[in-house]
Amino acid sequence: MPISKSAKKFMRSSDKRRIRNLAVKKNMRVFTKKAYEWIKKGDLKKAKEFSVKAVQAIDKASQKKVIKKNKANRKKSQLSRDLNKIKKGS
Q1: Which of 4, 15, 17, 69 has a 20 to 30 A CA-CA distance from 85?
Q2: Could you give the number of structural domains in the chain?
Q3: Domain extent at residue 60
Q4: 37-71: b or e for each residue (b if 16 or more CB lie within 10 Å)?
Q5: Residue 83 belongs to a domain with what CATH number?
């Protein structure tokens, strides 16, 4: 536990930041998971809809520095690659 006054302040602010970051990450995870569910089912329309939302959530997480830029680009690339697989299959 923090002892000094400034350490206590830092702990409060880092807790707030952690909660905010967790919310952004969860939002990103939910949309990517839904997009992959629809990709697995083969429903192109729903998969496209959720992949757009997932990309937006990934971009927002990257913008807020919750995840690194390269990780965001990798996730978007993987998602679009899998989406293109079902496009070619249709």
Answers
A1: 69
A2: 1
A3: 5-89
A4: ebbeeeeeeebeebbebbbebbeebbeeebbeeee
A5: 1.20.58.110
Q: Band of the pLDDT at 88, cuts 50, 70, 90? A: confident
What type of residue sits at position 63? Q
One-letter amino acid at 17 equals: R
Q: Comparing 34-38, 39-43, 55-59, 72-76, which segment has the lowest mean pLDDT?
A: 39-43
Torsion sign over Cα 68, 71, 73, 75: negative
Structure pTM?
0.86
Q: Give me the DSSP letters along the chain.
A: ---SHHHHHHHHHHHHHHHHHHHHHHHHHHHHHHHHHHHHHT-HHHHHHHHHHHHHHHHHHHHTTSS-HHHHHHHHHHHHHHHHHHHHH-
